[in-house]
Structure formats: structure tokens, C-alpha cells
Design goal:
There is one protein chain. With 527 residues, the protein is an all-alpha fold. The protein has 21 helices and no strands.
Amino acid sequence: MIFGIEPLIFWGWLFLSFYIGMMLMFGIIGMRKVKDSDDFATARGGYGPVFLAFAMTATAASGATFLGLPGLAYTSGFSVLWYAVVYPLGVYTGVLICLHAVRKAGASFGSRSMPEFLGDRFNSDALRLIAALFSMLLMVYLAGQLLAGAVMFTQMLGLETFQALVLTAIVLMFYIVLGGAHADILTDGIQGALMLLLACLVLWMFSVGYKIDGGFDGMVGELNRIDPTGGLTSSISPTHPLFNSKWDLFAIFFAHLPLGLLPHIGNKLWALKSDADQKKFITISFAFGILLPAITCGGILARALLGDALLMEGANPNHAIPELFIATLPAWAAALICAGVLAAVMSTADGLVVSTAQIFANDIFRRTIAPKLMKDAGDSRIDKYSLLISRIATVFVLIVAIWIAWSTRDMNVALLVWIGVGGMMAATAAPMFLGVLWQGSSRVGALTGFLVGGVTFSVLHGVGFGPTWLGTGDAMQAIAQWLGAQKINPFACATIGGGCSIISMVLVSFYTEKPDQAHLERIFGGK
């Protein structure tokens, strides 16, 4: 006991106080950098490639990587490592495809959000507004991050879940309301560096079988003792519906292609100082992005050390990483490292808060309401209102996310996140990728692809495909049954939705009006 307090809780509060102080400091620094609402939303051209790579990697990794993936690895073993390897390949391949065009069009049109970029790319207010409203699904993604933060606070501080959710939201609210995108990037850059150190530590612990007799081989033997069928040590899980076939692995890759272009991550692309640094930025981001998911290995090590303890009633596999540190390290070290996991959670949550607030401030107010109802207002006045709405919306978004997180508190964090992003991934796949790769894509085609992708994901994952929807023939029923079986797999549903989105957009674009050449040159540049 330290001053009558459990050591872990004492050190947890100490490190948390330091962490909060540091975040608030960066919020104040960010506030001083904010010049207008565009700066609040994007921090346009404000950061170099190395620091921004730390920030982007941290935002892309999230609590799903640092708590959800180890939780899945705890329950399913080595097969989950495919997820850890494949998903960053998908994310950064998508960013590489779109980086140049998104930056060029964003600079040309002054886009502040990905929905605004899509609207500008296809010269469509309808697409911008639909994409903005659809982006509200990201509140579920944000709820997943708050839930991951709550896991850390309950482990470190001895708080109840609801208290921990509120504390997570309050910390976020203060520094984001102050500094917007600048606070987001400044904090994420520091948090990204901490997360990389933590991933390296966990990878080392896993590779040596830390605290297990016989080292790595002893760990594998213990896993086979826990599951004599070899399910925990096989490369493809025979029982887990997300990792039991090559199709599942392809679905993980394809479904993650648009992740780097979602609003909370894609807005980082506009913060890069110079176009000349694009190659350096994406190379460093890719290297960091491949390393960070090594944290997944901690879930496998935790299963070998803790056995089935986190599968018992009242326990949760999401706690695999903090419980691993508590079981193997001194209290001060466990609390310090748990603070690093908390950094992973906050690094995605703050980006989500900024981007979701822009739905109200930018996509709805500045681009939709102001042009119609404030025609006589000057740009400075509209900008002032937009900045105010950004800060008010930040509070509103966090309140809604707390409610969602509380309602879904028993779900795996990684799978909860995918309820929020899966539909957005499927919907944006065609407009985003075809929009930057194919000049022949049309406005009506983009709208069609967006809606088809989003609806397909919602039907497959939310409702489930009925066994008789394609008719009563044997072949059609077999296809329908296979589609129905994908309901439990959000990656497969997003992949099928994305494929339908692309096919429908191509077909409709062939028969509808294309953008004029002048508009295309603003996006792709002249010949």
C-alpha cells in the first residue's frame, strides 16, 4: 500500500494526472495556433512528414488495435495475427492510391472534410450532404474508443465503467475544444511515439515467452494444453468466423482500403507542409503502421499466462493487455504502460471528435445553411460562427458517444468499431477510389455507388441475407446461404458492399454526364 492506496491505483492516478496535464498543455498550444475555422478543422500545411506520420499512424491504430485485437487474440490465438498484418497493408495501400489527388483537390477547393472533398470532386451538394450524414455512423466508432478508454481507467484507477466513460470524454473535450486539429495532431504525434515503444515491448515479451517456463516454446505448449485441438496455435482458426478461410483474410485487406480516407484520418493528409514530402510521409507511416499491430501478440501471451480467466463471467477479453502488464510487471511499470495504451485510445478518439464535429460546423452549416440563409454575411462572420459550432458540436458528439458506449459496453472493442466504420467503408469505396483514379466517373455514378455500398453493408450485417431472396433454385439458394453466413463478419460485409459500390458506380457512370474538363483539371491537374 502507498499512502493507504493500492499501488496500481496510486501510480495510475499519478501518471494520469501527468498525462492530462500534458494533453491540456497541447490543447493550449493548439489554441494559439488556430487562426480560423479552417485551421481548427484541418491544421492545413502545418506539420512535417515525420511528426505527421506519428500522428496518422496513432490515429489509424486506435483502441481497436491496442485492446480489441489483443482481446480477439486472447480468445482465438495465432490466427488473429493475420488481421494484425493484413489490415495495415490495406490502410496504407488505400492512402498511397489517394494521397496525391486528395491533397491536390483539397488545396484547390479548400476542402475541410472528406464529405466536402467528395462533394467538391463530383460537384455535388447531395453527395457531400449524404456523406456527411452517413459519417455520423462514426459516433459508434468513437463510442468504441471511449469504451476502450474506460477499460484502461477501470483497470488503472478502480473506477466504475460509467465514471470511466465520463472521465475519458471530459479529457478529450477540453483539449479538442481548445485546439481542434492542431491539438489532435500535436497529441497524436507524441502518443504515436509512445505507442510504438509499447508495441516493441510487447513484441519482445511475446518473442521470449516472458514469465513462462520454456520461453516461446513453453508458451506454445501452454496454449496447446489449454486447447488440445490446436485451435489457439493454428494459422487459420477452424472455429472463429472472422479468421477461418482465405476469403476472410482477403476481406480484411479490402475492407480496410478506405480506412485511411475516413474523415478522422484523411484530414491529416491536408496537414502535411509540402507536396514534396508525400513519399517520405507515406513510407514512414507504412513502417510505423506495420509495427504498431504487434501489440496483438500480447493477447496470445496473456492467454498462455492467465489461462481462461478473462473468459469467465464478469471478465472481458478486452482487458487482456492491461491484465498482462498487471500480472507480469511492478505496479508502477504496469500503470505507466497502461497509460501508453490509453494514449492509443485517445489518439483515435480525438480525431473522430474533430471530424464528426465538422459534419455540423462545415458540411451542414458552412456549406449548406450559410449559402442559403446568410447570403449577405461576410466570410469572417460565417467563419466565426463555424468555429463556435465546431466547439459546441464537440461537446454534443461526446455526449452521444458516451450513451452509445454505455449501451454496448459488453461488446469486443474491435467489432464495435466496425459497426460504425463498416458502412462508411462500403459506401465510400467507389466514390473515393474511382474518383481519384478514373476521370470518367460521374456525379450520378458516385451517388449511386455511395448509396448501394452503404445499403448493401447495412442489409448484410444488420438484417442478414435471406435464404430465399435469390429464388428457390439450388445454385441461387447456395449463394443466398453463403451471403447470409457473412452477417457475423463485418469485414466480409464491407468487402461485398464495397464491390457492389464499385460495380454500380462504373455501370451508371458509363451512361450519365461526366464532369467538364475545367473541373477535372482542378482535381487531376492539366496535361
